[in-house]
Amino acid sequence: MSDRGRAAADDVRRALAHAMATERLRIVATLIGTTGDWDLAEDAVADAAERALRTWPRDGVPDNPAAWLTTTARRRAIDVIRRAHNERAKLVDLAALEALTGAGEARATPVVDDRLRLVFTCCHPALSLEARVALTLKVVAGLSTAAVARAFLVPEATMGQRLLRAKNKIANAGIPYRVPTPAMLPERLDGVLAVVYLAFTEGYAATDDATAEEAIRLGRLLVELVPDSDEARGLLALMLLQHSRRDARLVEGELVSLEQQDRRRWDRAAIDEALDLGRIPGAAPGKYRLQAALAAVHATASRADDTDWPSIVTLYDELLRVVPSPVVALNRAIALGMGNGPQAGLAALDALAGDPRMTGYHLVPAARGHLLAQLGRSAEAVDSLDRAIELAPTERERRQLVRRRDELGDTGD
After folding, report:
1. What domain count does the chain have?
2. What is the pLDDT of residues 142-171, one digit of tens each?
3. What is the pTM of this model?
4. Closest by alpha carbon to 178, among 129, 112, 113?
5. Within this chain, do residues 79 and 35 fall inside the same structural domain, yes or no?
6. Cβ(181)–Cβ(222) below 8 Å
7. What DSSP letter does each residue of 245-261 carry, written as one string?
8. How far is CA 411 from CA 188, 255, 269, 296, 383, in A?
9. Residue at which a domain ends, from 106, 126, 151
């Protein structure tokens, strides 16, 4: 291929990637809303993208790539329905499909509604939380089944079956394809935010940037679709702040603790965007806004020693009132130990010792080991870290704890 041919192919790929990034969800959501067939909608859009790769290099990139993809996907769906002439129930959708026009002629409000309908359907409480996350990543974010499987650490075939069961349940249980009523919207939106954040944390914990970045994109979508939600803005800010540390958090395959990270490697643009989101006035802060505020305190400290620990403790006190969780209490105990001294942190940890929900949670003995080491009680610190190592859920976290323990003395594994 000549240099000119390669450049033209690159132009096609860039144009297609941009059009799919901006319009794929709109097209899929509209086709699902019209046909009720999730697989047909996804397949039609994928087929349109494949046709673009074949025809655009020959005919040139269309003036409106998104409209071309919309029209091609719609025609593909119509062809499939026509060929399945024996599926009488599908034929009633044909007239509606043929009435659809290209993206340039579509009315803005119904398209936005279709996207929002799709998000709320994927996150319907009748589905298991795992199914909600997987379906959202697959259908809304557009990840491949293989990519979703990697996020859940399961084989692709297993994830394919889980997605199929989720789609079948939507069809068979009559889960409505609609935005909740105003009275139900706050509760349902909170469930959607939880799904998006769980998708982010799945990717973040596995250091899977692609999944984490797709969750952030979903967060942007929710801010666009539900602009009055302070919690949607708070969630987006929280994810941006956490993800801003990705280049400093994992170095040569090893996890680096927050206090030891090279803060020059933090993504300042992401931090600034998150801080701007936090400056938009809202109602009484909810759990995502408060967590974003906590992350912002760390993000604005130029050195670990400059961290405003009293402010962090105060924010954890507020968060505990909103979310009375033992994990929040654990994080508050750690912050208390950093701000008021290790003895205060240990006393707060002791108060958590009897909570059965914390049994087997590796961060409890890890925190205790850190605070004991600060007091010079090395032998006790090593014992606590050994316990944390036994409970660590991933090999990377285990290696990080081993390094901490070995810094206190070569005691072996």
Report:
1. 3
2. 888 998 888 787 899 999 999 999 999 998
3. 0.79
4. 113
5. yes
6. no
7. THHHHEETTEE--GGGS
8. 51, 21, 43, 38, 10
9. 106
